[in-house]
Design brief:
It is globular and about 45 Å long. It has helices at 19-26, 43-59, 70-78, 99-107, 135-147, 158-167, 191-199, 210-213, 220-234, 262-265, 285-295, 300-319, 321-328; strands at residues 4-9, 31-38, 64-66, 82-89, 109-113, 150-152, 172-173, 204-206, 239-241, 245-246. The strands form 2 sheets. Strands 1, 2, 3, 4, 5, 6, 7 and 10 form an 8-stranded parallel beta sheet that branches. A two-stranded parallel sheet has the order 8-9. The chain is built from 13 helices and 10 strands. The chain is of the alpha/beta class. The chain has a single domain (4-328), classed as Alpha-Beta Barrel (TIM Barrel). It holds the Pfam family Peptidase_M19.
């Protein structure tokens, strides 16, 4: 069985320590998507992070594998390595150029959403005025589909996410989002969004972050409860895990350069208290998830789907598209 963590964050620094990745692997994770930048990070920082992460992975090929296909993930698991790809949280690093999408794909980015909490030239953030997908955003969806990158709607405004899912020719995911019905936070997704995601063939991956999961000490049973809600609403084939663990390393300063205002990106009016930062599940919660999912009534087959098989299915379809187009040409 492949255990798939759809989103995790190391410090946005080229010298980030990969010890947390090793902890995830030791807890049973076979694949993780590592964030390499968001809308608040300038291109210089994003590229520096990608270069640093790639160098760390290349320097330890016995532990890590930068992958581009599901077959690569299966092989890495068989070899005892953890498979890694990258994700972008927002379209600002694309510089309003759809052609940038394919470049990021070549650098290891296999997943992207278009707005981080706030509106930009491409899409709406979940903590901003609803406006909808822009004309440039329509072109960006086509570019993401064409590059074989997973189209993600985490952090995206509700109306805009529905328009992205309507525009996409490929399954769309929420790599780290929770049901709004269970916890009324603007970052969580409504039943309408969950149903729309499932209609594309996509997956909603549960975050373990305290603000969104409704527990100050989130654990396996909290994650299982949210996964069970998604499964009950749209079917177990559309529930997954993206714990969104943010690993801080005090010796590294990854603050975006320039006039960075945390209150803009995480507004107090939306329920963020910057004096009391969120808490996360520990990586070791992965060891407890199978039993927790069984406690909410899932079968062994259901558990395997939620922990990885569902995201493998979607990635197999989306990531294989460039190779299929290449062969056709």
């Amino acid at each position: 069985m492949i255990n798939w963590d759809a989103h995790a964050c190391l410090p946005q620094h080229p010298q980030a320590d990969f010890t947390p990745v090793r902890r995830l692997h030791a807890a049973g994770v076979n694949y993780v998507s590592l964030n390499v930048g968001a809308d608040m990070n300038p291109l210089s920082q994003v590229m520096s992070v990608i270069a640093g992460y790639r160098a760390t992975i290349a320097a330890d090929p016995e532990r890590y594998a930068l992958v581009s296909s599901v077959d690569d993930i299966i092989q890495a698991a068989a070899d005892g390595r953890i498979a890694i790809t990258f994700d972008l949280e927002g379209s600002a690093p694309l510089l309003d150029q759809p052609d940038m999408v394919d470049l990021y794909a070549q650098l290891g980015v296999r997943q992207i959403h278009f707005a981080y909490n706030r509106n930009n030239s491409v899409a709406d953030g979940c903590h901003d005025e609803p406006r909808g997908l822009t004309a440039l955003g329509q072109r960006m969806v086509e570019a993401v589909n064409g590059a074989g990158i997973l189209m993600d709607c985490s952090h995206t405004g509700r109306l805009c996410s529905l328009e992205i899912m309507e525009a996409s020719s490929q399954p769309v995911i929420f790599s780290h989002a929770n049901p709004y019905t269970l916890v009324q936070h603007g970052r969580n997704v409504t039943d309408e969004q969950i149903r729309a995601c499932s209609a594309t063939g996509g997956v909603v991956c549960v975050s373990g972050l305290s603000f969104f999961i409704g527990s100050e000490r989130p654990g396996a049973d909290d994650v299982a409860r949210h996964a069970a809600y998604i499964a009950d609403l749209v079917g177990v084939a559309h529930a997954g895990i993206g714990l969104d663990i943010c690993f801080s390393q005090p010796d590294l300063d990854d603050t975006p350069p320039g006039d960075f205002d945390p209150g803009h990106w995480w507004p107090a009016a939306a329920g963020y208290n910057m004096d009391k930062p969120p808490t996360f599940t520990a990586p070791e919660v992965w060891r407890e998830l199978p039993a927790a999912l069984r406690r909410v009534g899932m079968s062994e087959s259901d558990v395997a789907q939620v922990l990885g098989r569902n995201m493998m299915r979607v990635a197999q379809q989306v990531w294989s598209k460039p190779q299929a187009l290449l062969k056709a040409a």
